[in-house]
Design brief:
The complex is a heterodimer of chains A (306) and B (62). Chain A is mainly β and 306 residues long. Chain A contains 1 helix and 19 strands. The two termini of chain A are 24 Å apart. A 3-stranded antiparallel beta sheet of chain B has the order 1-3-2, with helices on one face. The chains are: A mainly beta (306), B alpha+beta (62).
């Protein structure tokens, strides 16, 4: 609350004596104190519950005060008129809300201080051993480059009529089964996949599907398609096989794939060790210009003045 | 005089430390009237200026 008191003095009506002027000042001061008894706002400081007592040669004014929303660097001015004084010689405020206060006697201002920011000097050691689990989602594989192995294809086992697996004379067909006239010794299905060829070529070759195991007895061969009877010589030869001879696939590349986003698992518990010095004591610093101190209220204060 | 029931702020001045202490004690301890109640200091500020002892207390009423 702002308080103003205006007194008009009739010029030329009466010239006041020195004693009357002094008394007028006292009355004016008293009026100001009375008008501003609760909640005086002057230059950012608002005084409340003001009481005034004589203290020897000085006057003791005390109560509580509050700051406004914008602290000016250099301090808030203490206006003696707001306290019913003509001059202020000392101001004492109790620390409050984490702030300390100092009275600048020459400037008649209250400075507000708070602790300065401090950064401890030291080092942070590497963390102790720990693990982090990483989960990967399925990602798209990259394309592979083409590769052609070097080498040659060759028929390593052509129909070799000169060296048949089995040979003999005389074949008797019954449905798909051909029974040799002579005796053979062969294990079960040893001739499967081989060709039965008559020496004269008068009958078509027969592909052998299976055979029974015989020892010194006519071979019993089951063939593909219609069996043929041929009294002449016959040969059982191995079928043709394509053999690749070459090197391993030459050096080639696989382009990188794409990993989808994956959530990392929580790491195991570990510690970081800070090694450093304690923060050295440092003087408090004045709060920054324009700091809002409107929450700093109800601060007991005591002013000495005359 | 209205009874002091909530507490507040009170300043003291004296020419000696003992006188200042006496003044504070008398203020804090009830004097037997209905208006006086025992009080408890919640904060205290003390200073000496020009040979005069000053104290500023914030107090609450028990």
């Amino acid at each position: 609350m702002y308080c103003f008191a205006t007194v008009k003095i009739g010029v030329g009506v009466k010239k006041l004596s020195q004693g009357e002027k002094f008394m007028f000042k006292r009355v004016l001061i008293t009026l100001l104190v009375a008008l501003c008894a609760t909640g005086n706002a002057w230059a950012g400081l608002t005084y409340s519950s003001i009481k005034k007592e004589s203290a020897g040669s000085q006057t003791l004014v005390y109560g509580t005060l509050a700051f406004d929303s914008s602290y000016p660097t250099g301090g808030e001015t203490v206006d003696p008129l707001a306290l019913g004084l003509s001059t202020v010689t000392q101001v004492i405020l109790m620390p409050a809300s984490g702030y300390a206060f100092e009275f600048d006697e020459s400037g008649k201002k209250v400075l507000v201080y708070t602790s300065a920011a401090a950064t401890p000097a030291g080092t942070l050691a590497n963390e102790s051993a720990h693990t982090h689990a990483v989960a990967l989602d399925s990602g798209a594989s990259g394309a592979t480059s083409g590769g052609t192995p070097s080498g040659t294809n060759a028929v390593s086992s052509a129909l070799d009529l000169a060296t048949p697996a089995f040979s003999g004379t005389g074949l008797t067909a019954a449905a798909q089964v051909i029974t040799t006239t002579d005796n053979q010794t062969m294990t079960l299905n040893e001739c499967a996949g081989m060709w039965l060829i008559s020496a004269t070529g008068a009958t078509a070759p027969n592909l052998i599907l299976s055979n029974t195991a015989v020892t010194g007895a006519p071979a019993v061969l089951t063939v593909q398609g219609s069996a043929n009877t041929d009294a002449g010589a016959y040969k059982i030869v191995k079928s043709v096989r394509q053999i690749f001879t070459g090197d391993a696939l030459a050096t080639h590349t696989h382009t990188s794939g794409t990993l989808a986003d994956a959530a990392s698992g929580a790491g195991s518990a570990h510690t970081h060790t800070f090694t450093g010095d304690a923060i050295s004591a440092a003087a408090m610093s004045q709060v920054a210009n324009a700091t809002n101190l409107s929450a700093v209220t109800g601060i007991p204060f005591m002013v000495l003045g005359r | 005089m209205a009874a002091d029931t909530e507490g507040g702020v009170k300043a003291f001045s004296a020419s000696s430390m003992d006188a200042l202490e006496d003044g504070i004690n008398q203020f804090l301890v009830g004097q037997g009237t209905n208006e006086d109640r025992e009080k408890r200091v919640t904060s205290l500020q003390f200073t000496i200026t020009g040979g005069t002892y000053y104290a500023l207390i914030a107090y609450e009423v028990k």
